[in-house]
Structure prediction request, 252 residues.
Amino acid sequence: MNSAFSLAGKRILVTGANTGIGQGIAVSIARAGGAVVGVGRSAMDDTAARVAAAGGAFAAVAADLADPAAAASMLDRVWDEKGPLDGLVNNAGIIRRADAVELTEADWDEVMDINLKTVFFLCQSFARRVLAGGRKGKVVNIASVLSFQGGIRVASYTASKHGVLGITRLLACEWAPKGINVNGIAPGYIETNNTEALRADPDRSASILARIPAGRWGGPEDIGDAAVFLLAPASNYMHGAVVPVDGGWLAR
Ligand SMILES: NC(=O)c1ccc[n+]([C@@H]2O[C@H](COP(=O)([O-])OP(=O)(O)OC[C@H]3O[C@@H](n4cnc5c(N)ncnc54)[C@H](OP(=O)(O)O)[C@@H]3O)[C@@H](O)[C@H]2O)c1
Prediction:
């Protein structure tokens, strides 16, 4: 493999690695030669098996990311017990669908805590350790096409993903001079649990598909390989970019 795209010798923490996009990212990291620390609240046996089949090392860490302070101390614990990290992928996220006039305060708070507040404090924990050790690091935040568009019936999700775009840019500006790259990926419509309700609605599903220039929904592997690029030396001069991987959705 061209070493600019290799993750050999790198250890990357991926949140929400048990399924969906996080699982796709874990497998892609393994294929690029990296070791994965998967963090989440559900069993990760399936991901561990897929990473092993790709020839990679995988360690599972149980954590509920709904509590931002607990998430940040989890990263410190991982660093102390398993050794330094080279990369952080903030992938875990939730969505609550309701008309804006119906959305509850709980639906607002839960989404903002997991999708934005925990993401910020994990970035902070990671950067503190990288900087204290005089190391370099890479952060990849999973944003959304709803970091750039409004959408419908997902008010807290859209707010959180606009926030992810904003903090990705801010952290990139603060940390680029210190050797930490902070970038993001804006997935389009990907076949995971997150979009199950949309795919179960024949009208919504057909209208979404008709608007995707690539003519298909994305799969977790489409996002995984883009994440490898943002974790590898090939992207060393990228800071604050949130790259759409969306079959052309945002270009339309
Ligand atoms: N699918 C899409 O079309 C799409 C588009 C744009 C952006 N995204 C973003 O991509 C990321 C991954 O989503 P996905 O599509 O792969 O959906 P998914 O299959 O629902 O995966 C979400 C992941 O987040 C984890 N998670 C949720 N709440 C958690 C908590 N409190 N503590 C620990 N882990 C938690 C989930 O764990 P459990 O399995 O235990 O719930 C799961 O691993 C999210 O940030 C999402 O917003 C997805």
Q: What stands out?
A: The domain at 3-251 is CATH 3.40.50.720 (Rossmann fold). The mean pLDDT is 97. The CA atoms of residues 113 and 151 lie 20 Å apart.
